[in-house]
Structure formats: C-alpha cells, structure tokens
Write a structure and sequence with these properties.
Layout (H helix, E strand, L loop, with lengths): L1 H23 L3 H10 L7 H18 L3 H24 L6 H24 L1 H9 L8 H18 L3 H9 L9 H16 L3 H24 L5 H22 L2
Helix pairs in contact: 1-3, 1-5, 3-4, 4-5, 7-9, 9-10, 10-11
Length: about 250
C-alpha cells in the first residue's frame, strides 16, 4: 500500500504543480479552455491556480501527515466534479482532462485514506482534535438547514441570488453547479452529527468556500448586503460551527 500511495501521490502532485504553473502563468491551454467555458480570465490565477498550488502542497504534506493529504485529494475531487459540470453546462463534451483528473483525484483519495488507516494517522488526528459527538449540536443543524435552503433557492436562482452571482461575475455555466455544492454540504453536516470528522471536514470546506465568496465580492467591489449579510455572516457561522461544535 505504501508504494501505491507514494506512486499515486507523486503523479497527482506533478499534475497539480503543472496545473498551478499553467494557470498562474496564463498559458494558452487554460486560457483557451476558460474562453470556451465562459470562465473569467482573472479566475485562472485565483481561485483556480491558487487551488492547484495549495493542493500540490497539501499532497506533499500528506506524505508526512496523511490526514492533510486526504483533505487535498478530496478538494481535487470536488474541483474536477465542478470542472465536469462546467463543461456539460455549455455542451462541451471534451471531458478528457477533467475526467482523468477526477479519476486520479479519486484514486489518490482512496489510497491516501487506506494509507492513513494503516498508519493510524487519521484515527489519531480525529481522536486528538475532533469531538466524539458535536457539542452543541444545534448550530450544526442550523447550518445544514441554511445550506439546504440556499440550495433550493439556487436551483432556479431567486432574484437576490441571481444578482449576487451576476455582481461577482460568476459564469452562468457554473450557476447550476452551486445548488449541488450546497446539497453536498448539507449531507456532510448531517452526517457529521453521527460521524463528527465528516462534519468537521464539511464545515472546513464551507469556510474555504465562503472565504472565496468574500474575496470574490471584494474583487468585484460588491460592498453591500451580499458581502456582509450573505457571505461574511455565513463565514462567521461556519467558523463557529467548526471551532465550537466539532473541535475539542
């Protein structure tokens, strides 16, 4: 298992580093793809290029702390699911790179989790930092209810959500992906009531999501209700749930 883990991690790390370099330097390959998918050019550096770079670092750190590698690989799985959704939304069937990326990320996630189990790393991290049960539990439920409510409003974006997406320049190709992100978050939070480390990972992912949302609002100079009431308040709630409900 160690050899398989190291091999897949090496391949995934090289791929992630390549993605970071191509996007951060504005190479014609990601530029052409972004144009085809109606993705804003500024997104190539952040969040796409930065995500690749952070994932690369996470995979490397995962060799010493497999739990970090699990988070990095899981992040890439989500990344490539969103990428495939973006392709399908615009009717682009050239899914080769995204599909290979998803397969590689999924395989890396599985073998990293198995490697962590062998090393008892994941169990040690969970036992050290994550509660046996979320306490208090009701903020977790509240956050889950908010996420599923948000998902419902995103399936056919209501007025203020559509304006929010438009104001931050979110490509319409990605609009249908957003409710499924919220549904996945809801499932993770609810599962976290019984399997706390799943809830902890979900709330941590939501923190990253809302940090990106706040950044997008600031970059778009959308300084108003969308920033403070929607993105910032949600970020604070996610941090509170992560820190006070799931962590020891």
């Amino acid at each position: 298992m160690t050899a398989t883990y190291l091999t897949l991690t090496l391949i995934a790390s090289i791929a992630a580093l390549g993605g970071a370099v191509l996007n951060l330097t504005g190479h014609r390959l990601p530029v052409t793809e972004a144009q085809r998918l109606s993705v804003p050019m500024e997104w190539l550096s952040f969040p796409i290029g930065v995500s690749y770079a952070l994932g690369f670092l996470g995979l490397l750190v995962g060799a010493a702390v497999p739990a970090v590698g699990i988070v990095a690989a899981a992040g890439f799985v989500v990344f490539f699911v969103l990428a495939i959704g973006a392709h399908l939304r615009v009717g682009d069937r050239s899914l080769g790179r995204a599909t290979v990326g998803l397969a590689l990320a999924s395989a890396t996630l599985v073998v990293t989790a198995m490697y962590a189990a062998e090393q008892d790393d994941l169990g040690g991290v969970v036992a050290t930092y994550v509660r046996d049960v979320p306490e208090p539990w009701w903020p977790v439920v509240l956050l889950a209810v908010i996420q599923i409510g948000d998902a419902v409003m995103c399936f056919k974006p209501v007025g203020f959500i559509a304006r929010c997406f438009t104001d931050v320049g979110l490509p319409r190709a990605l609009w249908p992906v957003m409710p499924w992100v919220k549904v996945a978050a809801t499932v993770g939070l609810v599962a976290g009531l019984w399997v706390p480390y799943v809830g902890a990972l979900t709330s941590a992912a939501l923190i990253v999501y809302f940090v990106c949302a706040v950044t997008a609002h600031i970059r778009a100079r959308d300084i108003g209700r969308n920033l403070f009431l929607n993105a910032t308040l949600s970020l604070v709630l996610c941090v509170a749930v992560f820190g006070f409900c799931f962590l020891r």
